[in-house]
Give the backbone structure.
Amino acid sequence: MRQKMDVKLSVDGQDGTLIAKSTGLLDVRNNGNGQFQFYDPRIEYQRDGRDGADAPRSVPGSAAGHLSVQLVESPVVKGGIRAIVVASQSSQELPSFVDVPVGRDLLLTAIGGNGEDGMNGEDGGNGHDGVNGVDASEGSDATAGSDGGHGGNAGHGGDGGDGGNGGTIEIIVHEDQAHLLMAVKWDIRGGKGGQHGEHGRPGQGGKKGKGGKGHEWEERIGYVYSCTDRCIGVSNNTSSLVRYKSVLDKSRNLALARFGAQVVTGGNMAMLMTQVATRFNALREPLVTPGACKCQGGQGNCAGCDSEPITRKCKRVEGLDGENGRSGTACTTVIHNGIDGPRGSVTIVVQKSDNSQQEYSSLYSLELVDFDAEDENGDGIFEPGEHLLIRRITVRNSGGMPSPARPIQLNAVESDWFKLVDGDDGHTLLPSIRKGSSVTINSFIKVRIREREEYETLEAGTIFARREAIQLRAIMPWIERDIPKFDFDLVIDIRYPCELRNIQALATVAQASLTKLSFEVYNHGSRTIGPYGDNQRPVEIDISFPEKFGQLLSESGQWNDAVIISPPNIRSRGGLVLKQQLRVHDDAQSYQHVTAVVKLYLGKPTHAPSDGQVDVNPVHIVEVGMQVSDLYYHNPGASFLLVTNSETERERADSIRMFVGSSLGMEIDTWNLSLYAGLDQRDDDSNVAWNILSKYHGKTIIFLGNQFDFFGQGTKSIFDVCDPEVVITAATNNTNFLFLDTPDFKPHETLTNEVVFCSNETVSDTRASINQSHRFDSVADFITAITQQKQLSSLSHARYVITVSKKWHQVGTSKSETVAKNIAEKLQRKLPTDRFLVTFTRPEDSKVCRPDVIVAVGVPYHNSMASLERAAASDLIADMVPTNGIRAAEAYMIVEAIPLHCRVDLLWGTGAGSPSNGDDNFALRSDFAIEALTTSLIQTTHREVELLLDKAPWPDKLLPSNPSKHSYEQLKFLFAAYLPALHAILFHAQALDPTAVVNSNVQLVLSYALAATRPQSKRQIAAQALGSSGHRRQRAHDLLKAGIAILFWKKDMAEIQVRDFFSAADDPTDRDTGAAVLRMVARLTNQSEHAVRKGKQDAASLVRGPLYLGPRDWDSRAAAVKERSKRMAEEGNEARKMLDIIGR
C-alpha cells in the first residue's frame, strides 16, 4: 500500500560526494573502494616495499539556500493549500507555486549538504623475499642466502568532510489563514559530517633466503704398507717383532683415517690431501723400491710387502641464512569525522489586516489539558440512556505564536458507549489563544450514553457497571485535520443509580414454613428517586418463586408465585429495606434447591412521552438460592443421625438414607444444621436448648464435610460448626463418627486429637477434679485397677492421678518429665490395646512434693472417628453400590462406623451370602452389607491383634504361657483386658446358646484374627523359634486358640470341623494377613490398595498407644479447645439471631 507523500519545495545544499563527482575528483582518486594508489603495481621496484600514499582531503557539503513562500487557501480545491514561491536562492530551479491536495502536507526543506566521507590511506608495499644460496659440491663451497626486503610504511587516512549549513525558510501567511500552517512541515537541519577514513596497513618484510646445503664424500689419500714373510732379503735371522710392528702400524692408520671427517674449504684440496697422507704415513701413489725391504735393513717397501689404500671422509659446510626484512611503520595519528553543519532558521511572517506584520520563529501548539463531565439530571450518576455534558474544557497553546483566528470546532469522539448529538449542542468552538497561554471554554458539549440493550443483556447476579474513556477532538477549519495533542481523556463510570443489596434469606427453609426475604434498594445518586422525588422516575421490584415449592404474599394479601412491589421514594445516597413473605408448601420436595428471582426496574432517564407511558429498564437481577428441607423428627429407634447442610443435594441425602434403611435395615434421622443454625435444638416454649448429638450417644453420626455458607459468616464446614466439647462428650459415651465429602483431612486430624483424650481441661483443673477413688500410689496399682475395670466392662474415659513414691522418685534422674515418660512406656507394655495420655503437675524446681502423674484414658480403638475424602466426579458412577446410589467406599465406611457391640450382634445374626436371620430391626438386607460387616470386623480384630503384638518385649509375661489350662472365666477376663473386640465375639450371648450356630462369617473373622497371631515375616519366625516360650506372639496365638476352642466345644462342633478350622487358620501360604485384609477391602470397595490407604483417615491411625504430653502442651491443647468452643458458641448465637429475624 502506497503511503501518503508530502508536496516538497527544497533549497537543500549539495553533498560533498556529489561535488567531488561533478568536478571529476572522484574518478581521478577513487578505485572503487576508497583506497588510493599512484603507482603501477605491474612494475618491479627495488627489494624494499614502497611506502603507502596518504589519502587526499575530503570535500565538505555545501550550505543550503533561502526559500520564501506565501500560503493561501487553494482556489482550485476546497481544503487544499497553494504555496506561492516568493523568493529562492539555490542551485535548484523551483516552480512559481504548487497546490497541495487535501490531506497532504507541504514540506519545505533547506538542509545542508552532507560532507564527503574520508578516504583510506594506501597500504605499504611488501618487501621482496631473500634468495637461497647455492649448495656445496666436491669442488666448491655452499653460498649464503640473501636478506629479505623491508616493508613499506602505511599511508595516512583522511578526515571526513564537514556538513554544510542549514538554510533559511520564510513562510508568509495572513492572520485569517494561519490555520493553513498546520499542514506545513519544514526541515532546516545542517548537513551531516562525513565519516573518517582508515589508515593504510604497513607492508610486510620479505622472508630471509636460506643458505646452500653442505656436501660430504670419501677421498682416497694414499696407500699404506706392511711387511710379510715374503719380504725380499728375509733370512732366518729376521726379527718377527719388526714385521708385526709394521702390520700394527698399518691397522692403526687405517682406523684413524676412518674416524671423523676432514673439512674442505676453497681450492686447497690437493695440498690438504698431501698433508693428510703424511700424517697417516701413506704414499700418494703405489711405490715399490728395488732391493731389500726396510724390515731387512733396506730403504723402502719391497715387492713382498702387502699394500692397502687408505680413504678419508671430506665435507664442505652449509651456507649461512640471510636476515628477514622488517615490516613497515603503522600510522598512529587520530583521524576525525566531519563536523555537522549548524541548523538553519525559519521565520513565520503573519500579515495582519492593518498591513502590519509579526514575525515568529515557531508554530502554535495546541494541547487539551483538562475537562469535566456532568450528568444531565444532576444526580451524579452516568447511566445508560442519559445525556452527558462536557464542561470546562481547558486548552493550552505551548507554541511560539497565537493559534489561528478562525474558530476551531471541538466535539466528542464516538465510542461503544458514547454517541454524538446532532445540532449545536454536540460541539463547541475554540477561540484564538495567545502563545504560552491557556483558555477554559464556558460552553458545553452534549453526548448521549447508549442504552445497555444496544450491546448486551443484563445477567443475573451481577451489577451493571462499565468504564469508558471519553475523548475530544479538535478539527482545524478548511483543511479538516485533527489537532494531534488532544489525547487527554476522562474515564466515566457508567451504571444505574439504584441496585439491590443486603439480600437476606435463609439458605435452608423447612417444608410448611413461613420465611422472609429481605433486601435493600439503594440509591447511589445525589437526588431522591421515586414517584414523588426530585428525580421523578418509577421504581418497581418483581419477585418470583417456583410455584410447586411455594408462594409469595402480595400487597393485596393474596398468595401468588410472583408479586410486584412499588416502593415509595428512595432518598439520595440511602437505602430502603423491603421484606417479602414466603410460604413453603408442606409437600415441597425436600433437599431440592430452588431459586427466588428478584428484579429491579427503573424508569428511563428521559422525559415521559405524550401518551403517559413510561419505559422502564431492568437494572439489577438477583437470584436467591434456597434449599427446601424436611423438619427434624427424633426416632428413638434410629441407629444413625445424618447431619446435612444447605449445599446437600437431594440425591446425596437420599442415597445415604436409602443405604441405611434398605441395605442395613436400620433407621436413620436427619438433621439439617442450616435449617436450625447449628447443632442445638430449642424448645419453642421454654427456649431451652440442647445439642442434638446428645440424643445419639452410643450410636453413629454421619457428617457431610463439604463447604457451605453459614448465615452470612462466610464459607464453613462441619469442622467449623461442630463444638469440640460436644463431640468429646459424645465420644466418651461410645458414639462413633463418620465424616464424608471431606476436602481436607487437616481439620479432622485436629478434632480427632482433641476428642480422643478429651482435651478440654488444663492440667491444674484436671488434677483438682479427680476423685479420691481415682488416685493411686503406684503404677502397679493403677494397671491392676484398669485391668479389672476392663474385665467388668466398666472402664470410663476418666482422669487418674499416680503419686509416685519417694523410692521411685530417687531412682535415676529426679525429673518429673522422665518419671511421666517412664510411666507411659510401662503402660504401653502392660496395656497395649488402650490409649493413655500422660503428663505431670509438679514444677521442676520443687524439692518437697512428690510428682503427681496424670493419666487420661482415651477413646477405645474400636470406637470409630473416620473421615473419607470427597470423590472425584468420575468416581461417582463407577463405584456405586447397586440400587443404593452410594459409593462402595462410603457404604463400607458407614458399616464400619456402626458401634462394635451392634456389629457383633449383626455378625452372629447373619449367614454367609444371605440376609440376617435375627431381629428384623437389626437385619442386614443385602449381600454387600453382610460382606462389608464381616470385612469391617476382620479389620477391627486384626488391628487389635497388631496393637497387642506391637513392640512387645521379650521375654514377656503379659499373657499366660499355657492358656489351655485356664478356666472359661479366666479366659473371659484375659480377652476383656487385652482383646476387647474378640471378647465381644467369643463371649457374645449367642456364643453361650448351644442352639445358635457359629456361622461362616463368625468363623471367617476368627480365622483371620488367629492367622494374625502367627509370624508375619521370616524375622518373626526366627525370633519365635529362638524363644517361643516367652514370645508374646506365640502366647497370643495360644490364648486365641484356647478361646476359639472353648467356643467350638460349647457349640458341640465335630472334631473334624474344629481341626479343619485351625488347619486353615495356620496355613503359612498367606503369611501377611495385613496385606490380605487390605486387598479384601480394596476389592469390596472397587478401589486400588493405595486409594484405600490414602483416601481415608481414622482415629486408629492418627492416635496410637500411650503418649506423653508436656504440661505446657496439655494446657495449650485445652486452651485451643476452649477457644474454639467459645468462638463456635458466639457464631452459633449470631446465626440463631439471623434465623429468628428472617425465619419468623
Notes: The chain has 28 helices and 49 strands. Residues 31-39, 808-813, 912-921 have pLDDT under 50 and may be disordered. Residues 394 and 1048 are 107 Å apart (CA to CA).
